[in-house]
Amino acid sequence: MDTRPEFIGTQYAFAAHIRDPDHAPAPAGIEDRRMGIYRELFYNNVESFLSSSFPVLRELHDDDSWHAMVRDYFHHHHARTPLFLEIPREFLTWLHDEREPRPGDLPFLYELAHYEWVELALTIAEDSTDRDAIDPQGDLLNDIPVLSALVWHMTYAYPVHRIGPDFMPDESGQATTSLVVYRDHDDVVGFMEINPVTKRLLELLEANATASGRELLAHIAAEMTHPDPEVVINGGLEIMNNLREKGIITGTNKAPAPS
Questions:
Q1: 51: Cβ–Cβ under 8 A, 6 or more apart, which residues?
Q2: 3-class secondary structure per residue, the chain
Q3: pLDDT digit string (tens) for 60-85?
Q4: What pLDDT shows up at residue 259?
Q5: Which domains does the chain have, with CATH numbers?
Q6: Which terminus of the chain has fewer CB atoms gathered within 10 Å of its CB, N or C?
């Protein structure tokens, strides 16, 4: 027996109808014209925000397939947060964890959505970097390089940064695509395709608090069993300087590396 106050039951029925009007009846006594205003308002707000958050994904779907996917999300996903800016993350969670694949799905559907979400997430992310502890012009080889807090590096099966109406791969490539997405000094989000050495360097920088740039690069050279580690170190310094210019490396830790 439902012991909830009547108004709460009405609220639940109202919300259920807004989410899935074809299967959940509207609360009794409310004119359908009025309910129609809310049905359109709620759905259109969510759909519009998803379209602007995933512009390439939207462009690659015709109207029917796009609205079918958004309505499926709107009907079935129970968001964990009321924050509007978190809708794209919720949509991504639904794509990955809840939505069953459909015939005709783009093979790169989730990866492209993830890539587009990262750009949005970095745009609104708070910068937790302690600028007072960093020397922007520090010696990247002999001191401790510091990776920006506004940097994500990912590996995809598809070249998601190239996908668009004129390039829609049917299958993943033989090699994966590694990208670094970052927010620069001017708060502009950029991306860069990276090679395995740069990817490994970013992985080490992400977890590093004590090693100098030279030590990190020597570690990579050892992993590669390179016959001349100085070649890797010199090439790595060029990479680090480029990363610093883009704001991916913010400088070096003012505390010197342990000797």
A1: 58, 66
A2: CCCCCHHHHHHHHHHHHHHCCCCCCCCCCCCHHHHHHHHHHHHHHHHHHHHHHCHHHHHCCCHHHHHHHHHHHHHHCCCCCCCHHHHHHHHHHHHHHCCCCCCCCCCCHHHHHHHHHHHHHHHHCCCCCCHHHEECCCCCCCCCEEECCCEEEEEECCCHHHCECCECCCCCCCCCEEEEEEECCCCCEEEEECCHHHHHHHHHHHCCCCCCHHHHHHHHHHHHCCCCHHHHHHHHHHHHHHHHHCCCEEEEECCCCCC
A3: 999 999 999 999 999 888 888 878 88
A4: 62
A5: 6-105 (1.10.150), 129-253 (3.90.930.50)
A6: N
For residue 84, what pLDDT is reported?
81
Per the structure block, which two tokens stand in for 48? Answer: 């519009």
Cβ-contact 233, 218 below 8 angstroms? yes
> How far apart are alpha carbons 84 and 92 in whole angstroms?
14
**Position 23 pLDDT exceeds 80:** no
Task: Write the pLDDT tens digit of every residue in 128-149.
Answer: 888 888 999 999 999 999 999 9
pLDDT value, residue 246: 95
Instruction: Give the pLDDT confidence of 155-169 residue by residue, as tens digits.
Output: 999 999 999 999 999
